[in-house]
Specification:
Elements (H helix, E strand, L loop, with lengths): L1 H16 L4 H23 L4 E6 L4 E6 L4 E6 L4 E2 L4 E7 L6 E5 L6 H13 L7
Antiparallel strand pairs: 1-2, 2-3, 3-5, 4-5, 5-6
Helix pairs in contact: 1-2
Length: 128
């Protein structure tokens, strides 16, 4: 969380230091602050994922902290690594994809290993 806040603060400060009109700098700074708030909400707020269920057919169900569950499909843009895994998925009926960041600290080691195996070797959904 600290790295996220630091990155958005650094971006806002760099934007404010540019030789642009004051209105443009302030508008950009507000835009960066809003984007940072949305990103923070999706990492530690009520929109953060509390539970993931990923099937061998690359179907995913994400339950948020507020109890809402969304099902969708894991896309090929997902990145699987030993220290960081990003799951890019599209909820059913949505136009835009979403991304989840999963680090080893958020689940038991065996569950993290299983998740990485399913993401790497799972079959694409039918009709993809």
């Amino acid at each position: 969380m600290g790295a996220l806040v630091a990155a958005y603060a650094a971006t806002a400060s760099l934007l404010l230091a540019l030789p642009l009109p004051l209105e443009a700098r302030m508008g950009g700074g507000i835009g960066v602050a809003l984007a940072g708030a949305l990103a923070l909400r999706s990492v530690v707020g009520v929109a953060a994922a509390a539970r993931l269920v990923v099937g061998l057919d690359r179907r995913i169900a994400v339950t948020r902290r507020d109890g809402r569950t969304a099902a969708g499909t894991v896309l090929g843009d997902s990145c699987v690594g030993a220290r960081l895994t990003t799951i890019v998925w599209r909820p059913d009926g949505a136009r835009l994809a979403r991304a989840l960041i999963v680090v080893p600290d958020v689940m038991p080691a065996e569950d993290f290993r299983r998740l990485r195996v399913v993401l790497r070797y799972g079959l694409p959904p039918a009709g993809a």
